[in-house]
Design brief:
One of its GO terms (molecular function) is oxidoreductase activity. The structure is a single chain. This protein is of the alpha+beta class. It has two domains: 51-152, Rieske [2Fe-2S] iron-sulphur domain (Rieske Iron-sulfur Protein); 155-412, Naphthalene 1,2-dioxygenase Alpha Subunit, Chain A, domain 1 (Alpha-Beta Complex). The chain is built from nine helices and 17 strands. The strands form four sheets. The protein has a seven-stranded antiparallel sheet with strand order 11-17-16-15-14-13-12, sandwiched between helices. A four-stranded antiparallel sheet has the order 4-3-2-5, with no helix packed on it. The radius of gyration is 23 Å and the shape is globular.
Length: 419
C-alpha cells in the first residue's frame, strides 16, 4: 500500500500533486474516508424534495444516502440501508413515498426514520431500537449539505452566517429544478475541482462561457498587458467596484469573501458583473427566464459565484441558478451533477426556453470534461512531474490543493497518534 503521508509531506507548494494522488486506488480510498467521509458535502437543493414524502438518493462512494422531506416539512437524511439485513431501501434517484418499505422482508419505516412495522420478530423485539441510521444534513438557504461522519466539522454555522445574506435574495427554496444533467468525467475528482478553480484555460476552450464573462475577472499577468489591455483591465476594476456598491445598496452582498484554505468547511464567494446585456449566462447575455428569482426586480444582479471545498461550485443569477456537485466514482472517474433552477412558478416554453437556459453550461461542462480527461491521460505517464501553477491565474487552484493536503495530513496525523 502506498505511503500517503510521504507523498503529502513531499508536496511542493504552488505545484500540482504527485501522480498517485490522481491515479492510485489506495489514495482514492483514503480520499473517500478522510475527505468525503468526514466533511460537509454539497448534494442537492431543497426543491429536490419539495413536498412531504419526496425522496432523493445520493451515492457517495460505498454509502447510499436517502434525503427526504417528512410530514412536518423537515428535510432529513438517512443511510439507505434496511436495519434488518442490510438491503437497499430506495432504488430510484427520485421518488415520492408515504412510508419506506424494504422490498426484501417488508419492514416499514415512516418519514422520520422510525421502524413502524416488522412481522415475525417475536414478543421481545423493540422496534424503537431499529430505526434508520441518520446522516447529518444542513440546509444553507436551500442548498443541501450532508456529512457522513459521526461528528461533523463544527464550522458549518460560521460559513452559513457569512453566506446566508449572499444566497438568500435568490430564494433557492422557492425554485424548482428545471433540468438535471449527470456527466461522467474521465478523471480523478481532484482534477475536476482543479479545473473549476481557474479560468486560465477559458479563452482557448470555452467559446460559449466567455461570452457573458469579462476576461479580466479571473486573473491576468499585469506585466504582459499592452497599454490598451491595461486600460481595459482598469475599466473592469472600476466597473467591479461600482457594481459592488450598487448591488449592496440593493441588499445584495457582493464583495469577495475567501476562506478557501483556512477553514475546515472552506468556501469562497463574490458577485461579478456580466458582459453584454449583463443579465445572465446565456449566449445573448440576456435573461433566460422571465420570472426572476426571489424578490429580485432587476435581472442585472450579476453572477454570484459560490464555491465550497471539497466538491461544489454555484452560479446564482437574477433569473436562474446553476449548482454543481462532484462525486468520486473511482480513482479515475467522477460524476459531475449539474442542476438548473428557475422560479417555482416559471413555465417551460412560456417563461423560459430550456435549450437557451442550459446551453452555455451544457457546452462548458463537456469541454471541461474533455480537458480533465487529457490531464488524466497525462498523469498516468512516466513523463509526468508536478508542474507550477500560474501566480496570476491559478491562485485558487493552489488554495484547493493546499486545503486538500492539510486536511489529509491532519487526519492521518491524528490517526497515527491514536494508534
Amino acid at each position: 500500500m502506498v505511503d500517503v503521508m510521504s507523498h503529502l509531506v513531499r508536496r511542493r507548494k504552488d505545484h500540482t500533486l504527485e501522480a498517485p494522488f490522481y491515479t492510485d486506488p489506495d489514495i482514492f480510498d483514503v480520499d473517500m474516508d478522510v475527505i468525503f467521509g468526514r466533511h460537509w458535502l454539497f448534494v442537492g437543493v431543497e426543491p429536490d424534495v419539495a413536498e412531504p414524502g419526496d425522496v432523493m438518493v445520493v451515492d457517495v462512494g460505498k454509502n447510499s444516502v436517502l434525503i427526504l422531506r417528512d410530514d412536518d416539512e423537515e428535510v432529513r437524511a438517512f443511510h439507505n440501508v434496511c436495519r434488518h439485513r442490510g438491503a437497499r431501501l430506495v432504488h430510484e434517484e427520485k421518488g415520492t413515498v408515504g412510508n419506506i418499505m424494504c422490498r426484501y422482508h417488508s419492514w416499514v419505516y415512516n418519514t422520520e426514520g422510525e421502524l413502524i412495522h416488522a412481522e415475525h420478530m417475536g414478543e421481545d423485539f423493540d422496534k424503537s431500537c431499529h430505526g434508520l441510521k441518520p446522516v447529518h444534513i444542513r440546509s444553507l438557504e436551500g442548498l443541501l449539505f450532508i456529512c457522513l461522519a459521526d461528528d461533523p466539522p463544527d464550522d458549518f454555522d460560521a460559513m452559513a452566517e457569512i453566506m446566508g445574506p449572499y444566497i438568500s435574495p435568490h430564494n433557492i427554496r422557492e425554485t424548482k429544478v428545471a433540468y438535471q444533467h449527470d456527466l461522467i468525467e474521465p478523471g480523478n475528482w481532484k482534477l475536476t475541482m482543479e479545473n473549476n478553480r481557474e479560468c486560465y484555460h477559458c479563452g482557448a476552450n470555452h467559446p460559449e462561457l466567455t461570452v457573458p464573462l469579462f476576461a479580466y475577472g479571473f486573473g491576468f499577468a499585469p506585466e504582459e498587458l499592452s497599454a490598451e489591455e491595461r486600460d481595459h483591465a482598469d475599466k473592469y476594476a472600476a466597473t467591479l467596484t461600482d457594481n459592488h456598491k450598487e448591488w449592496e445598496a440593493m441588499g445584495l452582498p457582493s464583495r469577495e469573501v475567501d476562506r478557501l484554505d483556512d477553514m475546515v468547511t472552506a468556501f469562497r464567494a463574490e458577485r461579478l458583473p456580466l458582459a453584454g446585456a449583463g443579465e445572465s449566462h446565456t449566449i445573448d447575455t440576456r435573461r433566460a427566464c422571465r420570472k426572476l428569482l426571489g424578490n429580485l426586480t432587476n435581472a442585472k444582479a450579476g453572477g454570484l459565484h459560490f464555491w465550497t471545498q471539497p466538491n461544489s461550485w454555484h452560479h446564482l443569477l437574477g433569473d436562474h441558478a446553476v449548482v454543481f456537485s462532484v462525486l468520486p466514482l473511482d480513482a479515475e472517474h467522477s460524476l459531475l451533477r449539474t442542476k438548473w433552477l428557475v422560479h417555482k412558478d416559471a413555465v417551460e416554453g412560456v417563461d423560459y426556453d430550456l435549450d437557451n437556459l442550459i446551453g452555455v453550461w451544457m457546452a462548458t461542462n463537456q469541454q471541461d470534461s474533455d480537458l480533465v480527461g487529457y490531464c488524466q491521460q497525462g498523469v498516468r505517464s512516466d513523463g509526468y512531474i508536478p508542474g507550477p501553477y500560474s501566480p496570476h491565474t491559478e491562485m485558487l487552484v493552489e488554495k484547493f490543493s493546499n486545503w486538500y493536503v492539510e486536511r489529509m495530513k491532519s487526519h492521518l496525523s491524528e490517526s497515527r497518534s491514536v494508534a
